[in-house]
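User: For documentation purposes, I need each entry recorded in a consistent format: the amino acid sequence on its own, followed directly by the corresponding structure tokens. There are two entries in this batch. Please keep commentary to a minimum and don't merge the entries.

Assistant: Recorded as requested. Entry 1:
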Amino acid sequence: MTEQETTSRTFRNELLRAIPAGVLETLSSTFGVLIAVRVFDASKMAKSVFLSATSAGLMLSLFVVPLLLRSRYTVASTAARVQFMGAVAFAMTALFPASEILFTLGSSVGLFFFALQIPLQTQIYRLNYPEKIRGKLFSLTATMRALAAMLFGLAGGHLLGWKIESYPWLLWAFSLAALVSGLWTMRLPTPTWNAPEAAQDSVWSSLRWVRSDKDFRTLLISWMMMGIGNLVACSLFVEYLANPRHGHTLETQTVAWITGVVPVLFRIAFTYPWGLLYDRVNFYVVRVSLNVLFAVSILCFFVGNNLAWWCVSMAIFGIANAGGNVTWSLWVTKLAPRHAVAEYMSVHTFFTGLRGLVAPFLAFWLIDLMSFQAVGIACAVFIFAASGFITFRVQKRDTTTSHRLVPGSAPIEEEWTERL
């Protein structure tokens, strides 16, 4: 198969896989917490466990790459197998829809498995997408994913607004989506893992890149600061609007529309432009710009206290999330050598998972101590601080390696890898 054929087939399969992926996205962003609050009146602990499931998967993904090196399966087949396990977990929630315990456990385990295979997907993008158009191709599939999420969010919101007892249909939809996603992943054209003979396969070996690569380390620290602020705020969006204890009496359909449709609509409109910017603009500039948008959206949401402010904030959040999705998924492909992309990504997802695991518990603890408005301001400060850290550190970057983040630079070569 030629390089062009590999790219075309990968893009076609990813475009189709984006549809079930968009459906699953609504579980973690809207419907999971909505069902937990409105159907089960779940405890803070149960909601925190659900919101932390994806983060737990991201953390443990650090160990996926070494296991893959030992198994010698293709990257795509391994990612597909993990998704099939997620489909089984989602099916458990649909088979026993009246059980709060099984809903929390099944949906959490399903999200856990889907997060586990993200570094493998990134390795596929590095292998199958050319450097100069990687952001463009990814943004097109991400747009399809956002469109599927918005349409399913609308349909699911109408279904729950019509009859809240209809939620089991959503649970079956999530299970089917996970199965279809795995089938399309299985068809992705990727070679058997071909790491260098000297590659390390210790379960902690991926962490060596944090010590060796200064640019990687700088961005990880900044992303940790920004992520804490962003994830704490995200954990409270649905809770703030859906739980009557906080003084709001919005209908279920309205909450689903504000948190699940408005941001996705703007994400659809802005994902492709951000993909082009990712390919053509210095990565540091893109990252700081996104941070500012995230901080502004959080301030608007919690400081403003009416429907108009919530919609505006979710619109800005959707614009930022469009670029955030592109950069979060692809940025390591600018830094890592060809064979080490999955390792770099597993480190990135590990720290993403670490902060994501802490953020929901921290969020619900904070709202017992201070107002939602104070929490929102604190989150925005964290995000602005992350931008300041990048701006300060970029002045001291290693000029022999930082060219990797400049558009049009050549991919990292093996001789530079040996230096690490």
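Entry 2:
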Amino acid sequence: MRLLIITQKIDKNDSILGFFHQWLIRFSEKFEKIIVICLETGEYQLPSNIKILSLGKESMRTARYERAHTKIIYIFNFYKYIWQKRNEYDAVFVHMNQEYVLLGGLLWTLLNKRVFLWRNHIKGNIFTRIAGKLSERVFYTSPFAYTAKFKNSKIMPVGIDTEIFYPAISGARIKNSILSIGRIDPVKNVHILIDALKLIDKNLVVNIYGNRTGEYYDKIKKEAVELAIFCGDIPNYKTPEIYNQHEIFVNLTNSGSLDKTIFEAMACGCLAIVSNKSFLKIFPRGLIQLLIFKENDPKDLANKIINLNNLSDDKKEEIRKILIRIVKKEHSLNKLRDDLNGII
């Protein structure tokens, strides 16, 4: 099977989208040939059966074009590539951006190319529904995703490379340590963690990784003086070392999407505290009260952190093993690769 993949960015050093570089490496083990069309590229090192084609955003940064002009260039390049390479792929996998299905769906239908869309956002609209109709299958990971209700939708593994994300054999975790990784953005609710820390009468080591710009960042950093350290962005492939240094990982995103960082942290042996209700079906019943806090509730989060810190080392290790097993069995990248290969 020869596969065309449409995605946003190919850059192993990207803190948010760098994971897709490893996805491609694993996919290349099952697919004969992969052509990737992306909006922009950075650094990548991929197998010989993968061809990368950029729509040109990286070069536009140095060119003085109006925004409308750049969009025309992107669309022109998109149609040029999908037409020129039409005899070199059998199916299309669009990752996250429904716009590409809307642009190319009718042409791919005429060319007899099967189209598959991966979309996992809680919100959607008529264009999402049209993209779903143009796709043979729509993939999602969260039961709260907008596309989960489609008749042709299918829930998929999150896709964690457990050959990279795993507990370190040696090295102790920092005692009473808490980690957060992700965009420092209102939708990520980092302020809830800061408010919870104010309620805990205990010295904690709290490290927050993510983009460090904007009014929201300035506001919560001011509130977090002496409570947390803001560490900036980090490439995805460097995060296993960070996960392995911490005892507790906190994710504050509300139910809807399903952040990959939670599963990466679990795979590395972190005790993951979340508010996402998707985990009511992921965590064993005995861990739900311990690891899931009420959305937007700093007091409940503070209590969860305190309770976890008070557990014995043996109990913490028991929970770690359960969480690692969940990722390996249900959400590994190898499982995602094999499931996709079986469907596409």
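Summary note for entry 2:
The chain has a mean pLDDT of 95.
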